[in-house]
Amino acid sequence: MAQEARFPIQLNNAFFITLEFHRTPELPDAIEIQFSVEARVHGKDFPDKLQIHLKVEAVENQPLTLFMELVGLFELVDGAPRPDHSALPDFVNERALYMLWPHVVQMVRQVTAQMGMNPVHFPTPYNFDFRLSNEIIESEQGEGG
Questions:
Q1: pTM more than 0.85
Q2: How many C-beta atoms lie closer than 10 Å to residue 113's C-beta?
């Protein structure tokens, strides 16, 4: 007997709406970027549809600055049982943000390589801890990398 999926929700589309990268003329050999992450989760139509707007921004005064906005569109898998709205915070924390993060990492590596520098390693934040508040989750997190 097949086990029922805890979160029968799939990422249908992810796209960047803003990309800004700037670098100083001289860069150190090893570069570490301090960044913040903000997510807005629009879940009023959950579980049928879910939209996550993810912003990643480097803190000021670094040799590389960046600002990215990514939107992820999620939908319920056809024919899957409908999870309760109370599952939304757990889905966001345990799955959705980790499904979007590889898009951010790949973009940073690709653009920094095209800027004539070693591709920057952009780690996954260790702990996304977003809480539901009036159908929208908003949080900020600083991270070193």
A1: no
A2: 12
